[in-house]
Amino acid sequence: MNEKVLTQHFDLKNLFQIEVYLKEAGYQAVQKALKQLKPAQILEEVKKANLRGRGGAGFPAGVKWGFVLQAVDKPKYLCVNADEGEPGTFKDRYIMSHNPHLLLEGIIITSYCVGIHTAFIYIRGEYEAIALRLEQAISEAYQHGYLGKNILKSGFDLDVYVHRGAGAYICGEETALLESLEGKRGHPRLKPPFPASVGLFNSPTVINNVETLSNVPYIILKGAEWFCQLGLPKDGGTRIFAVSGLVKKPGIYELPLGTNLKDIIFKHAGGMRNGHKLKAVIPGGMSAPILKADEIDIPMDFDSLMSAGSMLGSGAIIVIDEETSMLDVLKVVTKFYSHESCGQCTPCRVGNSWINKIVTRIAAGKGKKKDLDNIIRLASNIKGNTLCPLGDAAAMPVLSIAQKFREELELYIQS
Amino acid sequence: MIKMVKIFIDDKQLEVEEGLTILQAAEQAGIDIPHLCYHPAFPPEGSCRLCLVEIEGIPELELSCSTKVREGMKIQTKSQKVIEARQGVLEFLLAEHPLDCPFCDKAGECKLQDYYEEYGLFDSQFDEYKEKRDKKVKIGKNLILDRERCILCTRCVRFLREVTKTQELGVFKRGIKSEIGIYNGFPVNNNYSGNLAEICPVGAITDLDFRFKTRSWFLEKGNSICPLCSRGCNIQIEYHPGLGRFALPQRVYRVKARQNMKVNSFWICDKGRYGYSYLDKNRTSKLVRPNINQKQDINWDEVLDYLTAKLKSLYFMNKTSQVALVLNSWLSNEELFLARKIFNEDLKVTNIFFADLPDEEGDGFLLTSERSPNKRGAKEIGWAYVPFTLEALAENEINCLLIFGSFFEQLLNPAQLKSALGSIETKILLSSHRPELESAFDLILPTAVIAEKEGSLTNTEGLVQGFSPALPPWGESRAEWKILIELAKRLDINFAFYRRLSSPELIYQEMAEEIPFFRKEK
User: Fold this and answer.
1) Which of A74, B111, B279, B329 is least buried, going by the fewest C-beta atoms within 10 A?
2) Which domain range does residue A358 map to?
3) What's the sign of the alpha-carbon dihedral B330, B335, B338, B343?
């Protein structure tokens, strides 16, 4: 049986209430961290645990904190990226709605480690009910002395605020998130400088995903060694895979990093629905390059997927069966990115709209012979040439679908 | 101590200052890297993606506008990969572009047009519908926005955010529907709005004052200094040589800012930009004797001889106290210096006054409160700046009155002025513009405006700036310094001194010798 970490108490009724959470040994990690450990020891432990970011890029969390820890001249901020906008991804919402205090523990320990006294949870606007639940959890934590001034008499102060986004995918990109949090238009910033040196309100800022931070309390309680052996040597811990699409049991599955994709779909998620055959899988959120049915015998970790030409991303697995038209998939993908491009830089703004217009035209039965080559050319001109990762995120699925399913797509053009 | 780093651009070894961006370093070496959103006045924006370059050891292309040079960096600005990316970006920019160059004001000086000529020249692969956008949005009293042409470089937005800090423009909507706009009811009406049409790299923001009047390639360009306040902003005057294709009764079609980081950086105010009509309107073009009803023309020699005789006779009779001279602060340093030498030192004239346009409010940025360009110069040359009044005329039984410029009319009551002038025997006006009281003068000498002259001005901060003629001379008009030198030579009081001073440059040297203030670089 796989060991569950983040989701282990999800079955408990009213886990989101602090009384229930405390009964299940809650806030012990905060007790341990603030009373027994020095910030440097926490950082060391998190680095040893090889905790990599769960948002998509997979950057080691400890290294990120280390950059900010060194800054001393300005206030520092923690921004929790709870925008969860990547299509197919629905893991953070479960953590926040079922176990908000776990996230708060992670926030408190991280802030204590880095020397932060203000944290913001930037949550996507659609998660209104979850935002309210977070507010409730925060006020309980204040009442119990886990937030506010002089937490657990350690002398450490921390305030946590919830900020709801207004519905833009781009605001999940960390620098656009900062702009949005500052009350500006959600446009990504030019990097460098990186948020670790110039972030929120021009101050050093740590930005971490909800799932990443929720792992921190367990690393503190059970140690880096335990965390590493849960996953892979270079990727510590488990991953919450959000499986959607035409499987029998869609949902979230917390599994060790490195679990085989085939097993996730056919064992955990119950296999294909209605006895249909598998056609393709998008393994890491919609922006990950698509895998064909014969490519899914692969361990789900950062490096394996990268060598297969795709990526682990947010760990969202979208399963496509043989009944699904790849043109429809392409239409959904291009419509989404065309709609969500912020419009700041040229290739992403014009390129995605252009590709979407071609795909829409093909779907209307007016495809031309050169269209597929044109789509591939345009997507290649977007990839690597944009200001923020949205351009790549948009170009990669388009390129992989157009290349891997070219024969099928050509049928729509000929007929 | 500035640290230098060694870099290679297109295999050319360069020593450049540390801290420069690749684009700046390339610019210094004369290597052009195309860019649209980057403007040297603002921090890099990185949104147009046209300035991408290849750096050895880095797999993806990097922005040259924001990437700083590092020791040993090897940069390719014209490699296959770069050219392809550049063409890709140009293709994106042109896909939604209306391509209405034939009636776009920017044609001929449009960066998008230039770059397509240089790096593009591909056929359009865009078979889709273009987004419907507004073609004519009035965003300010002088400005029209064409959203079809806009490439969203946001130079305009950043100018209003970072220079004027008025923030009238913003980006609205998202993705392909993104557009520049004003916030309801708050148009761009600040005193620097005209700069927007100038920094727009394409024809998206056009200037109502210039719109559809001519094509940019018909215009000649000349450099000058704006005389409409005492800031001394560097300007470029653009005019039609001879008669225009679409003839308007004017030579000058527009004034643009000219970069000078010591004075105006890249900007000029709207007062300076749109206040150019004086260059063509109401000018004096011929020597005139308003009260002598005869067709026969007079020439400069006759006029100068007459003036010399008049002054000389008063000088020999020791009656130069009956001479009154009115100067103004539109005269160059050289002219004000010559006036001092000739009238004050040689002729011993003491009734010397100044008549300038009255001060108005400054705007706290470039526009100062003074409405003439050289008050500081007059002061440094030693003029006491006694204002010209009718009382001053009445007190000193004036027999001969010489006035430079027509500004006095703005200061004095016309009826009183007319009667005061009536009691003076000889009244001579040297002016670039026709006065209202033309008939009150015996003789009117047409003079040049600053844009037609050579010389130097001292701005409000004491910076001396030289200027050369930007426009060809107007009719029979002559620069005041030429008139003064001619007069001085004819007066023959100190011939040897004036004979050498055949150019403003030589006059300046003489002035610098005498007045330490001017011993500095212009």
Assistant:
1) A74
2) 326-414
3) negative
